[in-house]
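Notes from the 1:1 (GR / supervisor)

We went over the backlog. Supervisor wanted to see one worked example end to end before approving the batch request, so GR pasted a single chain during the call. The sequence is below; no edits were made to it. Supervisor asked that the structure be written out right there so they could see what the output format looks like.
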Amino acid sequence: MLNIILCGAPGCGKGTQSALLVDKYTLKHLSTGDLLRSEIESKSEVGILADSYISKGNLVPDEMIIEILLKKIDTMAIDAAGFILDGFPRTVGQAEALNKAFEERKNKISFLIDIQVEKKELITRLLKRGETSGRSDDNLDTIKKRLQIYDTKTAPVNDYYKALGKYHAIDGLGEIEEIFGRISIIIDAEMNK
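Structure output shown during the call:
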């Protein structure tokens, strides 16, 4: 089973690239952002609590995210060739819990791909997305806070996967197809090992 973590700062294009990878490699897409937004829209107890964190630019607690994610993985795993984890794990604690959960399911994370984009470009992309998406977290103050949190809490996840020999970085600037090509080269090489 091919299980890929697609990571990078908010606005790097994880969602766009994930959709293309799902089509090419017949993987199941899991976005913690989408899962959380679904919970928020349904006004579930978890969703209301999650929204209280997200609307302030904070990360949702690890336990809550992992519980939601594993529930979804277990329901989708029956006919899955693998998963793309979009934007998760966001902390080293989440990475450790994810690896443990996959091992318990007799599975593993194949590797992580880090889509790298400069901060100035990320802010431009997120502000533009905010104009059309209606997302409450796409405003300048919240964007800056999210990028700061990414640098302090999420970037160390890359070091965790580097230590496991499961880390790849790609340049996230350029046309969508160019970036997709860079990612595909890594996946194809990993699959042929």
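Supervisor's comment: Helices lie at 14-25, 32-41, 45-54, 62-76, 92-104, 119-133, 140-163, 176-191.
Batch request approved.
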